[in-house]
Amino acid sequence: MKNLSLCFLVIGLMTVLLPEAQASGSAALQCSAVFVTVDIPTQIEIWLLQEHGQYSQAKDLIADQEKKLKTGAPVSIVVGGTASGPRRVTLDNNVEGLWKNLKAPYTDGVAEVFAYQLDLMLDAHIVPITVYRELDGKMGSFQLIVKGQDISALKYHYGPLYLKWFDFLLDNRDRRNNYLTVNGRVVAFDHSLTLEHPDTIQRTLDKIDYPKVISQIISPYLVQREKVEELQRRLGQTADAAESYELQQEIQALNHLHSATMSELAIALPEERIYNRLKDISDADWKTFLRSYLSESQMNHFFARKRSLLEAIDEVLRVFGRQSFRSGSTSPLVRY
Description:
This protein has helices spanning 19-24, 42-51, 55-71, 109-122, 164-170, 200-204, 210-237, 241-268, 272-280, 283-290, 296-320, and strands at residues 2-9, 12-13, 35-40, 74-79, 87-91, 96-101, 130-135, 138-144, 179-182, 185-188. By secondary structure, the chain is of the alpha+beta class.
């Protein structure tokens, strides 16, 4: 972890990388108010550097963390669940990670690595660094553990709305307690039960229907939008003070519905940069990437989900415009 200077404002947290910090190779954050010092996990630091255009520094940090995950000697191994279950491993370089067998009941190390590589492909900044690593003579995935969970971030059963698009793309049906919020950011882990996993438990879980999620958010507003136009027409024609007041109250309530819809969309949609990546990456480049992880059938299903995802987002943009995307560089806190 690195010590970063953070400034907390009444209106929120504003961050800008200091030029002198960039020159010195350290990361610092600036704003024009009182400073406090907190520890920022290395993974969060990497995402902040990327979001502020410091790609070279971020690349160096990623390479450093990947090397530590691959080469550090285990000094502590805690086995979770069954003998074939995940292992929390502490290395002699003070890095901690979660190791999973490549293929074992309810664990799939390949899926864990794929989720991380997909995150990199889309510049999503959701999944921590994950590599292949041998442990006790067995090959598996090894994911960096991000510490410092925000205690005040309450979880709700089916996971944050923020991760719906990502889970839909992955066909991840097991988003329950397997995410954290760290420094106000959503961090997703445990993607074993994805990609049409053969285990019975995955088949019993409901698929995420992202287009339906979006439809449920925008439909109430769309139903009422024509009513607003009619109310405004009547308001312009009436000379009755009482009727005018009632019409204004109805219009105000419907405008509140628009604001609530936009707030919900700001969480449900991926960041605009992710949307652009989804649109811009060619099918040929996708296939080159996906062949390392997916069968031909899985690949076809992935492309179908990607098309549905983009169609749902495009419908939002058609109605509400690009202001639907949330502003700012970091993911939202999980809703309370």
